[in-house]
Amino acid sequence: MKAEIIAVGSELLLGQIANTNAKFISRQLSELGIDVYYHTVVGDNAARLKEAIRVAENRADCIIFSGGLGPTKDDLTKETIAAHLGVELTLDKKALEFIEEYFTKHGREMTENNRKQALVLEGSHVLVNDNGMAPGMLLERGSYTYILLPGPPKELEPMFQHEAKPYLAKKLGKGSKIISHVLRFYGIGEAELEVRLQDLLDEQTNPTLAPLAADGEVTLRITAKADTEEAAWTMINEKKEEVLAIVGEYCYGVDDDSLPSKLVDMLVKNNLTIAAAESLTAGLFQATLAEIPGVGTALAGGVVTYTEQAKIEQLGISVEIIKEHSVVSSECAAAMAFNVREKFGTEIGVGLTGAAGPDAHGSEPAGTVWIGISIGQEPPLTYLLQLSGSRNTNRLRTVKFTCSYLMRNLIEKGYKN
Amino acid sequence: MKAEIIAVGSELLLGQIANTNAKFISRQLSELGIDVYYHTVVGDNAARLKEAIRVAENRADCIIFSGGLGPTKDDLTKETIAAHLGVELTLDKKALEFIEEYFTKHGREMTENNRKQALVLEGSHVLVNDNGMAPGMLLERGSYTYILLPGPPKELEPMFQHEAKPYLAKKLGKGSKIISHVLRFYGIGEAELEVRLQDLLDEQTNPTLAPLAADGEVTLRITAKADTEEAAWTMINEKKEEVLAIVGEYCYGVDDDSLPSKLVDMLVKNNLTIAAAESLTAGLFQATLAEIPGVGTALAGGVVTYTEQAKIEQLGISVEIIKEHSVVSSECAAAMAFNVREKFGTEIGVGLTGAAGPDAHGSEPAGTVWIGISIGQEPPLTYLLQLSGSRNTNRLRTVKFTCSYLMRNLIEKGYKN
């Protein structure tokens, strides 16, 4: 099966958003072993969309559309496909009920144009939208499979994963399976990882190994092709062991793991509680931990002390520390971590202070960050970061480094990983 | 002039990266008034790239390529174009010198395959690469303009801006200008916005109006085409006034504005200080405000009270309120807002409490959120949200609604907008 992805939306051609849907769908299709030879982006224009469909039908047999299923007049994907294929649009009662419920639930009145979203291609299999109103569609016609997905990623992604992907997997039968497994590293650069894995990278055929750097992390994607899923996984696991024997100390997780999710896992597993005092991150560390369901037993809370006054009054940081060392200092980070732990009565306290940028803080250049970690009654540990990103990159990196340093400390202390 | 952008790279078709180059180039072209009707992505495969070029030549006269100019064997963009057009590749001496210098400068030895990067299409204008080794090219051939750019955004972007864009602007002469201006709305759905703007949408020709929903907001893009930038802006501003006369109450900003950036603007402009007490958002509201440089004079800080105990001990929420109304209640949100304002001595206090999900909080279903706003000594105001997204969507929406409600309150109280 050869697939082509057609994204519909003038906002893409005007450069207002990037085509992240094609990235998502491509990745999913590659897991299924379906080749994607082209992506096309076309605007909200029926004639040009028709032309794109004609071109795609010459080079693919599975055509996946994203966008243009909404209630407004410039949403014309299904109308254009209907005209192109000579198929009627019919009202889907379940979809209409769902849309009506959506409005009732949100206490808003349903306008007439929203009914348009319940129109589907006759003979299509309707794909449920759990995160929006426009249903998706899947239509088999001659040797072609047409899949219509809504544009917003938060609607498209679960719909593809829960509805379209299983359908395609079933249709493919027991063909060759491609499985990918991602190892996640922190504290090592892409170039260094590559040097240390050079022999493995040179000899790779199947499984393949692909290092990629993103957001301060490095990932290594191991992809195996085999006749069965089991066989692919055996190959992946063997290669994984070889990799971890070399750079295992930097590997913090796999696949959809994140540093915060692994940290929360560890905290919950070890019955540890945590509190944080945040300055430059202003709550981002705690907010990031709180993305993980189940964090409630570990995260007590904390304080955001954005100003000097708040550090003194709300957290009891001594005026002397600030005068002598400034708020961007090891001493201040240590005191923040220690005091917030005492204040909230938790096992762990974290203190984050620094100059996020764009401005320096006194003599401390932008990107200077101190991380304080206080575990029990032991003297707090502190770490200095010298970051060189933008204000918000620096804040995000600070959160990631904090997770990483804290986990390493806990592992060294013998807590369960 | 009609342009098509062809991105070359199998990593795009495998979903490893998104085609952000097309976004960048499109935005630049729209500023020049050049219409982009299609984006195409194709892998590192000569036959399929040729097919993409043939298709593009049928529907565009300016074809812009990104990627495939590097030293490795799978970099074949210029080779394929050379074969397609029957043009030779010749060694560009300046490019070769530049590459040799690059290696000397970085203290690395130049491998033979790097010479390949100095081969350019005969008769082309060579585009200097200030951030990498592969030069770009610009070739006029019959009625077509072919522009070849390197794949890495940090090489492509300056090359396009400094070399290709001025060339195209000159070629266009004083042609038509296309300017887009985005109005941003909150608290109104896309469908409702469209109904209320129906007459304007029906009669649109130039400027055009395009509504778009994303992340709980609705935007309306006004795009005008005129001979000069000034004339385009006059048309946009006239249309904008018509739009705002109808739905102005929901419009919170334009272009790159965000709800948090507008709120921070307002706080700074009016010399107001703010503190927040956060439960379900766990610091996300404060962290979001802190993304905006200059927030330091407005944001004092706040507390994250994730547990009941923290609400009682750290914020002085009375046990009676919690017992009688639970922590997910108007009363609790009001007390959190009031108490954190008093505690931090700010003009404004915000209290956020709710069930982010996936689990309900007692009898309160997931997505039930109370926002408390305390301004000065007046009784706090509270707002109920019934959200239906995922845990993190609900937390993000809560932050956006908080910004929106707080701004409306401040505007009603006569603060400068």
UniProtKB/TrEMBL annotation, chains A, B:
Pfam families: CinA, CinA_KH, MoCF_biosynth. CDD domains: cinA (cd00885). Coiled coil: none annotated. Residues 4-171 form the MoaB/Mog domain. Belongs to the CinA family. HAMAP family: CinA_B (MF_00226_B). This is Putative competence-damage inducible protein. It comes from Lysinibacillus odysseyi 34hs-1 = NBRC 100172. The gene is cinA.
